[in-house]
Amino acid sequence: MVPSISDILRETVLGPGPKPIKPTAIHPLDGLSVAEVERACEIAKNNRPDQHIWIKLCTLREPPKALLAPYLEAERRGEEPTRPPREVDILFFILETRDLVEVIVDLDAEREVKSFVVKTHHAPLDRVELNEAKAAMLESPEFAQVVKELAIPAEIIVPQGWPYGADDAVDHPRRIFYILYTRDPKTNHPDSNHYAFPLPVTISWDIWGKKVTSVDWCYTGGEKDSFVKGTGPKQNPTAGCQPGEILPELRTNKVRDDLKPLHVTQPEGVSFKVTGQLLEWQKWRFRLGFNYREGPVLHDVTYDGRPIFYRISLSEMHVPYADPRPLLNMRQVFDFGDVGLGRSANSLENGCDCLGVMHYMDTAEVDPSGNGRLVKNVVCIHEQDNGLLWKHTNAPTGRAAVTRQRLLVLQTIITVGNYDYIFAWHFDQAGAIHLESRATGILSTGPIDLGKKSIYGTVVSPGVLGTSHQHFINIRIDPSIDGHKNTVVQEDVVRLPYSEENSSGIGFAVESTPITKSGFADADPLNGRSFKIINPNVINPISMTPVSYKLVPHPSQLRLAHPDALITSRAPFTQHHIWVTKYADDEVFCAGQYTNQSYGKAGGVKEWTERGDNVENEDLVLWHTFGLTHVPRVEDFPVMPVETHTITLKPCNFFTENPAIDVPLSNQSFNKSTTVDTGSVEANPCCAGNGL
Amino acid sequence: MVPSISDILRETVLGPGPKPIKPTAIHPLDGLSVAEVERACEIAKNNRPDQHIWIKLCTLREPPKALLAPYLEAERRGEEPTRPPREVDILFFILETRDLVEVIVDLDAEREVKSFVVKTHHAPLDRVELNEAKAAMLESPEFAQVVKELAIPAEIIVPQGWPYGADDAVDHPRRIFYILYTRDPKTNHPDSNHYAFPLPVTISWDIWGKKVTSVDWCYTGGEKDSFVKGTGPKQNPTAGCQPGEILPELRTNKVRDDLKPLHVTQPEGVSFKVTGQLLEWQKWRFRLGFNYREGPVLHDVTYDGRPIFYRISLSEMHVPYADPRPLLNMRQVFDFGDVGLGRSANSLENGCDCLGVMHYMDTAEVDPSGNGRLVKNVVCIHEQDNGLLWKHTNAPTGRAAVTRQRLLVLQTIITVGNYDYIFAWHFDQAGAIHLESRATGILSTGPIDLGKKSIYGTVVSPGVLGTSHQHFINIRIDPSIDGHKNTVVQEDVVRLPYSEENSSGIGFAVESTPITKSGFADADPLNGRSFKIINPNVINPISMTPVSYKLVPHPSQLRLAHPDALITSRAPFTQHHIWVTKYADDEVFCAGQYTNQSYGKAGGVKEWTERGDNVENEDLVLWHTFGLTHVPRVEDFPVMPVETHTITLKPCNFFTENPAIDVPLSNQSFNKSTTVDTGSVEANPCCAGNGL
Q1: N or C: lower Cβ tally within 10 Å for chain A?
Q2: Strands B674-675 and A357-366
């Protein structure tokens, strides 16, 4: 086999000898350093001196809970426990055999402790692989033929490579398909928004075979003739399209000039403390992990010393499209499994992505040759004012007590092809954790004949169909509500029957249903449904009920594809909002470890629930699937204003009073607001009454 | 009849002669000035020289749409149209006859143009009336007897007066009922949180008759004996209660001392312009009204010159409780109809309620004697940063384009008894309007025997039951989407059947159902349901579909009381999320004009829909009911961290592209962020690339 670009890169860049690491001061949950990444890969490569390997992933293998949980507890007690072995998961291809191999390297022992070949699954895609494939596809005779038939210059064409969604339940060769676009032909500017010029053709590519497997001309019809090919012009098919530029320098209309600056300052510094990856803020204490796949991970979350969550992360995001016409129906991406949240993270910048006083966290990534690289600023950490936290005016005296709400915000922004997502974990002062997700970026577009409409989406620019789609995000919540033995309880609020006591018919009450066996449940907002994670062994002395944290599931629309459709079997986690499993190490990804080109055999949360494990008063995991059905608006093009959703985990009879009761009352000497009229900072009577 | 305190006040404070106003420069939607309030009342009083009147309300009567709409349109065209007559609605009692009278005064003509007696309805409550009633009740022999039986000092007792919810379909005398509490007996501090010491007795009061009508001892039992009275001690019944103070000076634990200041500054001033009550910001233009009942009202809302909404306001808030046991089952308040959002508004303060650079709006209120008073700062207007607005990184080049989101925020905070609410209208730069509502304040509490739990709520402090309840808010949306002829369309997203075209079973599409006759509909998030207000006469040239604004209804739980319960007939608007009526002047309050002591005959949106009017391509009104079922948490006591809900009206194929595409890219020279590590304001590459 011919060595690839990265083979050469690996041979030339990587030094010769081993680089030992002494990780004694490293916390078990610290992300791998660049040196650790390189050392782990070195060990794996040294074990295979006669083979060329293409490294896909190199990431911290978190210690098993049986070791890590006692470690964290001892640490919180102020002890200095012995660190569990520092292990690394590496995934690579052996180029000679095309075997996909998982190994576990023990960095302390400097050796591989496990190695096995992965069968019938495909590794995720990586940037180098995608770039090489694209370069090769652009050199193919089939591409040249397409260019000729389109009668447009090859140099304006932008192919967007996609994970190949399954069209049958067969283990296909490793492949990609390309949707072709052009830059604005008038400018061919490298940052021209090509999604405004979709070409009516897709090209499929065999990655290992380095060959085109098919050229598929799109169905470009409308409501009346959607399944008839080629009614649009084949030559210069985007002649009727118009530029849809995002960058001001490429647009003809001018930007607004009436927005005045707004600055956020913290003259006395920030209120949070960062020690390595340990964060402490307003009674919260947790470790912020970060990996290639889930991005930021919250570990060992406690409030005022009480454990609440062992681990919270984003488990998967799946985005299937509505248009069933080949080949655009292959848009069925698993963004975290096929690519990775962490490895799609933007390096954030002061003043652009982040306003105020920032702390940034970096991560180490690996290239196919095993070289590590520090990616800067993948998480920005800062405080935000969020309006009022609580207020009450005592009517008899008129005395007001008011507090403002401060948030600790951990923000990560990712780019996955056309779309961009902003994920932010918000910690508040009243014991709640919120996950805010914002979808932005550019719609995935396809061609449509000029003047036609489609039931599969919205015409967002002439000749451009913004295809309807669904976004499914799954959040994995591993609770430790005052300990690891917890139960998930479904709670509805129900009307009470008429009775002597309820003669007026106004009575209502909570109906509780504990989930005793691993399984699933759905949101039901019209019945006021919530899910509590209780610790049945710890009773709140005030309410006399078990301590708990509550999740009100986001009642988003579930999977629209047919239940027996192949796409549904690839992501059964999209069929229910709530899943409860018994905890198991390595059960982390709800659509399975290997989603790329999966065809219903990848495992995942549905399979794990089918074990029927006891999950009552047990070490359990709660998974919540939410998202949105996105029927594009014209307003979502050429770039989409953020579509925001928030999931909240809040204490429910966990504390013995409002945990934010001790937040200082707001006052003007602290907050220094001004009025437009005077511009001066004034004292005022309300604030005078508020002590700080 | 004996003159009341306010009768005397009116006689002594009010001057003799008329005070003419020349309102020629006044806009038809400007709120009444203090002088106008007093002049209007003077006219009404002068017409009744032989009678004593008690003024309940005096508010601007907005001109009928037939006059106002053309006026506003002409004004927007730059013309100087003739102002419609300046009319005032006054509501008052004639003390001699106890008649409740509505009059309309024409301030231009200086005369009453209409006057009629209101039959079988009760006026809302006012502060003077409540204070007088409470003072008299505290002097009653029945109260003295209660004090004696409780064996506690009278001076620690705090009676909380409530509108008397209906217990039968009869027109009762005007009345109030009191839930009795005590301050912390150890301090008897005037701002002690009395909701931590509920007494097991309520007192009902006849307002006109000035007498106690009943003394009712509460049911204080728990799950096993909830409908058996008096198992708790009658003497000193709160002996087992504990203080639940809010104010730091009354609490024993100390406030947090680790929160650092966070300041928001706008060194070049704000980006909005206020001209009287006209607000202009980022292509938005609207008039901000304010009245006693709805509080802030958005009039004549346009974006970039295109009309979108004629009028948006909060129509009603209704809060029924779950506990059917007399007399705490009478908690069925209509906060806006029984009392008034506007007249419950706090005077907001820099640095406490509001952070940053503020503009405030005042309002004029009336007292029973017809004296006007300026209430300062009932709305604060300011800008907020709201994170990112849109971002995309162009993968082929790595070039990122990112904008931050600025909001214009109009905030009003109200106190209604124990509860406080924060309502904020948010205007964004992408053409959307959001209503954010935050519930805070103190739970309505009742007594429960120590050590018992109840199905009707949560024990939030020893001996204190935080009763479960529902909050229903109704927002009234009078659209003018590119004109007054609009249609509401219900849209679901539905799975498509298998077919040759949809052979993979992944296809889905929108199912549209126009609402052609006045009626109702419900939220259905699991079917992706939204409601579009379309203008069928204006077609978006890009999407080729009617222009529209979209409401995704908040899928909150509807009325839990039985459909045939009396309480349901008082507020049928709580039975459905969406109501559509044909526009009619004076159809503004969804539970009817007179909610206080209503018993199913108050009219309102249900009655109006029953006319079966055509609402397709018609001047229509869309009403949305939303809220929450609130099962209290211990964490909600002694004061509740905000519970936040947001309703959004967003453009949907109204514009021809993302309306925020012209927002300048974010950059560091504009936003001046800092990093914790260095504290310095740095330039950076991303921002360097962003022009402003």
Answers
A1: N
A2: parallel
Please indicate whether the domains covering A5-118 and A127-250 agree at the CATH topology level: yes
**Of B663, B657, B620, B659, whose CA–CA distance to B519 is shortest?**
B620
Helices and strands in chain A: count of H runs, count of E runs = 9, 33
Q: Which of A419, A549, A594, A599 is catalytic?
A: A419
User: Does residue A498 have an active-site annotation?
Assistant: no
Catalytic residue among A89, A126, A300, A335: A335
Say how many residues make up chain B: 692
Number of neighbours of residue A607 by Cβ within 10 angstroms: 14
CATH class (in words) of the domain with range B273-442+469-497+506-630+639-652 = mainly beta
Rounded to a whole number of angstroms, the distance between the first and last alpha carbons of chain A is 72
Q: How many angstroms separate the CA atoms of B323 and B481, rounded?
A: 44
B127-250: what CATH class? alpha beta
pLDDT in tens, B100-147: 999 999 999 999 999 999 998 999 999 999 999 999 999 999 999 999
In single-letter form, the type of residue at position A480 comes to: S
Nearest to B59 by CA among B85, B38, B37: B37
- DSSP per-residue letters across A588-631: --TT-S--TT--S-S--HHHHHTT--B-TTB-EEEEEEEEEEE-
Q: What is the pLDDT of residues A130-145, one digit of tens each?
A: 999 999 999 999 999 9
pLDDT band, very low/low/confident/very high, at A231 (cuts 50, 70, 90)? low
Confidence of residue B230 (pLDDT cuts 50, 70, 90): low
Do A58 and A38 meet the contact criterion of CB atoms below 8 Å apart? no
What's the CA angle centered on A563, arms A125 and B497, to 5 degrees? 110
User: B334 pairs with which residues across the strands?
Assistant: B318
- Asked if the C-beta of A25 comes within 8 angstroms of chain B's C-beta atoms, the answer is no
Neighbour count for residue B206 (Cβ, 10 Å): 17
Cβ atoms of B380 and B352 within 8 Å: the answer is no
Is the minimum CB–CB distance between A2 and chain B shorter than 8 Å? no
How do strand A111-118 and strand B433-441 relate by DSSP bridges? unpaired
| β-pair partners for B204 | B177, B214
Is A558 in the B-facing interface, judged by CB distances under 8 Å? yes
Contacts of B50 (CB under 8 A, 6+ apart): none
User: How many residues make up chain A in this entry?
Assistant: 692
DSSP string, B434-488: EEEEEEEE---EEE--TT---TTEEEEETTEEEE-EEEEEEEEEEE-TTSS-BEE
Rounded Cα gap, residues A680 and A266, in angstroms: 19
* CA–CA gap between residue A385 and residue B415 (Å, rounded): 23
Question: Who's near B250: CB < 8 A, 6+ residues apart?
Answer: B184, B187, B189, B191, B192, B193, B243
Q: Strand, coil or helix: what is A395?
A: coil
Is residue B685 within a helix (H) or strand (E), and if so which, with residue range?
helix B685-688
Q: Catalytic residue among B335, B449, B478, B482, which?
A: B335
- The pLDDT tens digits for B273-309 are 999 999 999 999 999 999 999 999 999 999 999 999 9
CB-closest option in B351, B388, B442 to A440: B388
The class (CATH top level) of A273-321+332-443+468-651 is mainly beta
Return the structure tokens found at A651: 């204490």
**Domain parsing of chain B, residue ranges:** 5-118, 127-250, 273-442+469-497+506-630+639-652, 662-692
Using a CB–CB cutoff of 8 Å, tell me whether B400 touches chain A.
yes
Residue A219 and residue A38: Cα distance in Å, rounded?
Answer: 47
The CATH number of the domain covering residues in A5-118 = 3.10.450.40
Q: Provide the β-strand partners of residue B550.
A: B532, B650
Do the bridges between strand B357-366 and strand A674-675 make them parallel or antiparallel, or are there none, so unpaired?
parallel
Does residue A636 carry a catalytic annotation?
no
Cβ neighbours of residue B126 closer than 8 Å, sequence gap 6 or more: B56, B343, B368
The rounded distance, in Å, linking the Cα atoms of A125 and A134 is: 13
